[in-house]
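Summary of Year 1 activities. Much of the first year was spent building the evaluation harness for sequence design. The harness presents a backbone, in tokenized form, and records the residue chosen at every position. We chose the following record to illustrate the format because it has been used consistently in internal testing since the harness was completed.
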């Protein structure tokens, strides 16, 4: 039985990924920082709930201890993240970006991803077929951001692309450091979720496809790559 943890999974892409992986036979820990929402989502998807706030060291440590006590972990899906929109649902523009507006995204998207990965590495290294999936974004691709023909070229903000590009760098470096673990970053596509104020152009079912696929790769699968549903993406 494959045991999987998905962070930020009480709604959106995380919840749909949990549902699909339970359906595929995984024992899924649906991670959330909201106890009641997480429990409800776990009940509805057939997953187990685990309380985890990726910005809080004690919370992450407690989640790792619980999952270790239950038997270990095979797959980690680092899904939790924020975009950093203002209260009016607008993206912070470069002229208004400061360390203070950028910091929350790095605290969650980068430091949170690193915190969770570090905490669960000992468990993953005991697995016969360990996998890590980092949910990045097409906006993490510097090649695409600089290409006027790319859909993401017109995105005006700094913080979100910078944080997700950093996640891609973590992916590459972890993959080199731990060749026995399949570690990849994925781009779900512009999906309708609370992250973007439901302005996306595809459903969570469509967006979760690449996450679910990469969570199920075997020991002979790719590692250190960046993928969407169509295949490899440029850095």
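For this record, the design step produced the sequence shown next.
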């Amino acid at each position: 039985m494959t045991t999987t943890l998905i962070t930020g999974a009480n709604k959106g892409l995380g919840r749909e990924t949990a549902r699909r992986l339970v359906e595929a036979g995984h024992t899924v820990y649906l991670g959330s920082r909201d106890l009641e929402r997480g429990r409800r989502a776990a009940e509805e998807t057939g997953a187990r709930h685990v309380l985890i706030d990726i910005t809080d060291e004690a919370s992450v440590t407690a989640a790792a201890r619980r999952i270790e006590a239950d038997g270990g972990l095979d797959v980690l899906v680092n899904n939790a993240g924020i975009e950093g929109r203002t209260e009016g649902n607008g993206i912070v523009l470069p002229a208004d970006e400061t360390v203070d507006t950028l910091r929350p995204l790095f605290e969650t998207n980068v430091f949170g991803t690193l915190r969770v990965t570090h905490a669960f590495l000992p468990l993953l290294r005991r697995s016969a077929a360990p996998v890590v999936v980092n949910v990045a974004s097409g906006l993490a691709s510097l090649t695409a951001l600089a290409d006027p023909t790319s859909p993401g070229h017109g995105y005006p903000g700094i913080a979100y692309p910078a944080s997700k590009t950093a996640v891609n760098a973590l992916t590459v470096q972890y993959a080199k450091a731990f060749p026995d673990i399949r570690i990849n970053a994925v781009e779900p596509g512009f999906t309708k979720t609370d992250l973007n104020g439901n302005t996306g152009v595809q459903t969570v079912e469509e967006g979760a496809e690449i996450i679910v696929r990469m969570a199920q790769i075997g020991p002979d699968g790719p590692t250190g790559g960046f993928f969407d549903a169509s295949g490899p993406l440029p850095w």
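The domain at 3-232 is CATH 3.40.50.720 (Rossmann fold). Quantitative recovery figures across the full test set are reported in Table 2.
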